[in-house]
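WARN no homologs supplied; continuing
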Amino acid sequence: MGLIPNDIINQVIDRSDIVEVIGEYTALKKAGHNFKGLCPFHHEKTPSFVVNPDKQIFHCFGCGVGGNVIGFLMRQEHLEFPQAVRLRAEKLGIVIPEDEAPLSPSRQLRDEIFKINGLAVEFFHEVLLSSREADTKNAREYLKNRGVNLETVKKFQLGMAPNEWDALLKHLKAKGISEELILKAGLIIAREGKSGYYDRFRNRVVFPIFDIQNRSVAFGARTMDISDGAKYINSPETPVYIKGQHLFGLNLCRQKIGDVDQIIVVEGYMDMIMPFIHGVDNIAASLGTALTTDQIRLIRRYTPNVVMLFDTDAAGQSAIVRSLDLLIDEGMNVRVARLKEDEDPDSFIRQEGIDAFRARIESAQSLLDFKFSWLSAQIDPLTVEGKTKIARELLATIARFKSEVAKYELTKALAQKLNIPESVLFKQSTQVQTQQGSVKKPEVEIKISASTSASDELLLSLFLKDPGWVKAAGKSIGPEDFSDGVAKEVAQAIWSLADESPDWSTNDLLLRLRQESAQSLVTRLSSTEEKKLGDAALVFQDCITKIRKEKQRQARSQLMEAIRQAEAVKDTEKLDQLREAFNELLKEG
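OK structure emitted
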């Protein structure tokens, strides 16, 4: 916990609404007293991730992960405990004393770059809104002609990089930012063969890229002068930005994506902004070409349903094809929408209108239909050689589906498209699946110990429901009497809390536990809907009796083993002591 006082930690947890916090990362829906959604920590098609607003905890019944709001942020943001507390405290306006343990150098650098990027966003945005320079006026006219109004400029915090070598550099240095940090943020470039630096972005419309916490991580910039080189340039990778881990516009659309349970993925900044202006607010841009696994998993936090809508040129369609297998691997439901030749979403909407755009989304092709059409445009599907190549390509894709029903139906559909007997394709599909199965890696999931006994779990459940049972249990058993290490750790923490106060809570307990498996056991028992136990006192007594009998069984077993060893070495004195102890144990039983 570092040096953060316990009362501050408790205040952060007490003032946090865990449903609201987790809802920023994955879509949650009301389910009785709890909320449910798809787990953000492992792949699943059926929601098994439960958030309990009363106890302010979460638990996934699929992978076993569980904890409180701080535990969620630690796992989601890859933070240490003090960092997660600080992050949440800052959001809540809770001041943490300055004598806490210092941030790690890497975390401190990330925070500084976030700050620098924020200053750069403000600078570029103010230039676009206020500058009277001719280049900026041209930029405003360009955006206006593209249909981007002032409201959209402000919502996306669009900006303009002045047509100067070091306008941003001077601005940031005036704010007390060193050139070294500005360079690490990727906003300036070292002069070749000379000392000094110059701005990376000059005379360009700037599109800030935000993460899902609305922090600026990078920038994309479109030139206003074709002689300036590339039409678009982007930030390099930095300590806060890794290409392929973010989606442009997702910070603005994630809630709607979860609500409608679908995302439209496009390529470019304007391809995302133009539909958004017209009310299509379940959309995001890939910031490149093909989707990466990280981007797909980011999408999966909000929906498993994806409509790919990339440019109709060869590069755009190839990018979709490269994304398909990854999408299937991650259990996504994929369709592909297509526009007119040489059209992108931006130009299509400006020429055809938003209704025509929505119609194209609704009529999106299935994955099989799209890939078959794409392959058929390159390979003649009427020749034996062509059919062989297409079948091999599509069967490899079909084999990636986890559902045997999906594989069966898609293989049948492919047989019809190629006019080949189904039996032939099923035989070949078996070979393909065998080949792919040999190299597939199983998905890693975190599971809690399966050795915790039913009596242990029932007794721990009673403690969590009513801490008063701990005192009663202490007359007959102790933490050491629980059957495995996980249950023992939980029991030890409970006994310790009960000694300090009779009014401890589930969150108090979670703060005492260090093992993820122990936290998972607590959140699982706390999140499981209460069953009718009948008379709690009888259940309690039954658990105590079974735990004591198990303790005696183990003790007898240990003594019998010790007796065998003493007999083997003919240690009569020790043998007499052991037999006496064994007889006493039998009397107790």
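The longest strand covers residues 216-223.
OK
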